[in-house]
């Protein structure tokens, strides 16, 4: 599991992502991010092996 | 019966026989909008003058023997994510108030070439990022939501403001409002219909398709809009059949799977009862039924959001930085969250999508379709946050609706919702039919067989 993000670390992360948020907005963003992160973390246990992503680049020009 | 109450097939029959003029039909739809849209707020914009001009042209063409087919002269609503040349595409957002479309989206172009007449643009949840459509109300009871994000099209079709509404579906946004408003909704296979000119939410999951009053009408619209388009890389070159051709062939010899997990885990008993009764009706017509297990059920929501959140943020990144304050809080929070998702997390989801596709293929061995509830509960009250199911589970309204929709978005499989009853408060219930890739014909055929044996689709709300 990931360690929880401190307020300072979250501030840095927001700056890194070029998000300039008010204190109130930071609270909302933190809750939204935590919810998304929890969903993504729930996928960690699935073994992927050699499975490629479900995308395929088409080199054709049409 | 007023002209606006006709379905497309019946109206087309009358128009082609010159028993009904497109002008009369379009005027009837516009009068209906005038009469009920104050209560529903289904439309962002009504294009009455433009529609009547187009109807006069259609009338003239038909009088001269140049009948184009079953959409000629039919009043249609276009979700306000689709570009229509000369009209704004606001995506129901302050962020896009000044956006004017220079050209028609692929679907609008194909629909108008087929003779469809646009009566207006219908509301969506802001940028299709939600399943509520807060601007709009449910025509069966205006204290309830119409669902979303194609809530304007759902409310408009069900109330008679137009005979067909186009929608888009990334996590149920065609099927949810169709089910909640008592309409038919078709999410075609991923790549069957071009998304060119439709505002993106998530390139990996976005689908476009129609909301109609009958299954036949959905087939008629699919005939017009399906097919390869070099401007949408996801579109398929597979030939487009006539989707109306086999509608009456029945279900004898066909086999469907009814999920024993996931779709019936947390569900309103009224919805479960109606769906199981619908399965029995289909069985009585010769359909074989067997149980199936939905794979990756526990991961479904994580996969859906794991694609939507970062892709939506990528699309909105510039607008978020330039005018983030114009988004609603609800949408903005998720757009901001998407800035912080790691690329490796996103790729994990894409790799899992490959596994999910393989697992669905295996599950479909020996069956033609899955039959299940479209959503686990009927329309939520305006302002309602969550549902409490008999198991005691409390689920947010959004999660409940998206949960049942996500399997067909993630797998890309065609999915149809057909009305299959009403709950005790008079709100519609939907039956979902999910088919094999590019086999919309079977999905429509099963839906039509069920619809023909019942009268749910013919009921209209009393506004």
Protein traits:
heterodimer, A: 62 residues, mainly alpha, 0% strand, B: 463 residues, alpha/beta, Amidase signature (AS) enzymes, 13 helices
Question: Describe it for me?
Answer:
The complex is a heterodimer of chains A (62) and B (463). Chain A has two helices and no strands. Chain A is mostly helical. The radius of gyration of chain A is 17 Å and the shape is flat. By secondary structure, chain B is of the alpha/beta class. Chain B has a domain at 3-250: Amidase signature (AS) domain (Amidase signature (AS) enzymes). In chain B, 38% of the residues lie in helices and 15% in strands. In chain B, the strands form two sheets. Chain B has an eleven-stranded mixed beta sheet with strand order 1-3-2-4-6-5-12-13-9-7-8, with helices on both faces. A two-stranded antiparallel ribbon of chain B has the order 10-11. Chain B is globular. The interface between A and B is medium-sized, with 29 and 33 residues.
